[in-house]
Write a structure and sequence with these properties.
This protein is an alpha+beta fold. It has two domains: 72 residues, Glutaredoxin; 149 residues, Glutathione S-transferase Yfyf (Class Pi), Chain A, domain 2 (Up-down Bundle), CATH 1.20.1050.10. The chain is 59% helix and 8% strand. The chain is built from nine helices and four strands. Strands 2-1-3-4 form a four-stranded mixed sheet, covered by helices on one side. The radius of gyration is 17 Å and the shape is globular.
Length: 233
């Protein structure tokens, strides 16, 4: 039995963290049966980070490690057609999305313009949460941002990094419909996790404004959303 542990839902998405949404999309795209458990306590997670997977007692953390494990154990063929250059592109895309993550997170927890919207959405959808708990989480994130480096940026400089990431991803995608052409791969699950976490959020950040101007990113997000929901139903 596969169990995915990830953060709670928000704005209609199955996870309010792009890495958890990435794994959810990958699981559903491949038709794997799994239980999805939404948690906030990360103490049981490898390295104290979500998402993580329990596959018949084998615990795997990190979204890339989870996907690698699933491909090997269940002999998934989603990426088998990728050549060496495409595999390298896939890796570079994932590293770019890792950089984008910090800007996305900064926009929700650090930027005073958008923090109240994010906080209130969480409180409205998850009554078990408290404002005090979220303030504590916010202070913790401030520390993370400082040590990672993004917290030492002024907002405009932070967003310029994220916008550069999005521009590169949009150029890579081109006319699509998917990263490597007509068929979706695990790279598309990763891209979907991030773009959906911007596009479907009712938070008017500079990142969302940019995504709305890129028809290819919007179309990719919509196509993946339909595919994920169809597979999950």
């Amino acid at each position: 039995m596969i169990t995915l542990y990830s953060y709670p839902q928000l704005f209609g998405l199955e996870d309010n963290n792009p890495y958890g949404l990435k794994v959810f999309a990958f699981l559903t795209m491949n038709g794997l049966s799994f239980e999805h458990r939404h948690v906030l306590d990360t103490s049981a997670a490898p390295r104290g980070q979500l998402p993580y997977l329990d596959d018949d007692g084998k615990i795997i953390g990190d979204s890339d490690a989870i996907i690698a494990h699933l491909k090997q154990r269940y002999q998934l063929t989603l990426d088998d057609a990728l050549d060496a250059d495409q595999q390298s592109t896939d890796l570079l895309l994932r590293r770019t999305l890792d950089d984008l993550y910090w800007v996305m997170s900064y926009s929700r927890w650090r930027d005073d313009r958008f923090w109240p919207i994010f906080r209130d959405a969480l409180l409205a959808q998850h009554p078990q949460l408290t404002a005090d708990a979220l303030e504590k989480a916010r202070r913790y994130n401030f520390e993370r941002y400082h040590y990672q480096g993004i917290g030492r940026y002024e907002p405009e400089a932070a967003y310029s990094r994220g916008l550069a990431d999005l521009r590169a991803v949009s150029r890579l995608l081109g006319n699509g419909p998917f990263i490597f052409g007509a068929e979706a791969t695990s790279a598309d699950a990763g891209l979907y996790g991030f773009i959906a976490s911007i596009y479907f959020y009712d938070i008017d950040t500079l990142l969302k404004r940019y995504v709305l101007t890129q028809e290819n990113l919007v179309n990719h997000c919509g196509a993946m959303r339909k595919r994920v929901k169809r597979a999950a139903d």
